Amino acid sequence: MAAASPASSAPLVLLESLIAGTSHREGLKPYEPNLQVGQALTLVREADSTYDDWAVRVYTADADAMWLGYLPEGRNETIARLLDAGYKLGGRLTHKAWEDEWLYLEMEVLLMAE
């Protein structure tokens, strides 16, 4: 019997993570109503970060991209290495909630189908 092949059009979830640093993003509080669970996110490598060798920024994937925060330090090395190697990665917002003055955002990091 032949092994089942993966669906070539479906992205592979590589990581489920919160988005760190949302309380430091200027303009995020008034922008928050525009964020919708399920929306696409973009990952951008910040190789010159002075704070984290594996820094990966998270943005919305629309024309006026909003910088939401970072993948958390300690959970970002593999994703940073994949971005550095040229893999096509994306993201999807999976949860949002206010906890007092903190906007709690969760996402999936996706390996996009070719």
From TrEMBL:
InterPro entries: HIRAN. It comes from the Bacteria. Residues 12-111 form the HIRAN domain. Keywords: Hydrolase, Metal-binding. Pfam families: HIRAN. This is HIRAN domain-containing protein. It comes from Hymenobacter cavernae. The lineage of its organism: Bacteria, Pseudomonadati, Bacteroidota, Cytophagia, Cytophagales.
